[in-house]
Amino acid sequence: MKTIKSNSINEIIIKNSRFINYLIKIDSPSINNYLDEIKKNNPKANHYCYGYIYNDIKHSSDDGEPTGTAGSPILNVLEKNNLNNILTVTVRYFGGIKLGAGGLIRAYTESVTENLKKVELIELNKGYKVELNFNYSDEKQINYILNNSKIIDKSYNENIKYIVLIKQDILDKLHNYNTNILEEIYIEKDS
What we know:
By secondary structure, this protein is α+β, with helices and mostly antiparallel strands. The protein has helices at about 30-40, 70-80, 100-115, 140-145, 170-175; strands at about 1-5, 10-15, 15-25, 45-55, 55-60, 85-95, 120-135, 150-155, 160-165, 180-190. Helix 2 packs parallel to helix 3 (about 100-115).
């Protein structure tokens, strides 16, 4: 399993239609903010077709293009490249020449494929999103154990609570602490 190291934008033109593809690294299946931002930056576009894979969740949208001509081909490129934790959106500005179903499938596939050629891919390993609750006196030890793990939320109340993305070996080291696995996820190999 792989993901992109950083986000990327690429544009191709096919028969006067502009296809602008966005590759976006995601850490949840909540994609509306990304779509809203892309629509705000491309207010006159005709279509905003997308596909994403986050863990076992996969979804795509043709956004008004004929059924199966945009979202499915976009998602297919992600699957064939064994990608995860990724959203790709192709914005289309219609150029006045109809492409037909086969032409649309090829155009949307090419928009993603060309952008993928520009990015560096990184390996993903199975990991966990964990809620960790502990005493203030344990904070130094917890931070030492979590060293290179990604802490996505901290709260300080009666106890300390972290939401953290960790690999199995780190989870094993936390066996003496109150941990609650929220979900199995894929995380970057070096996290």
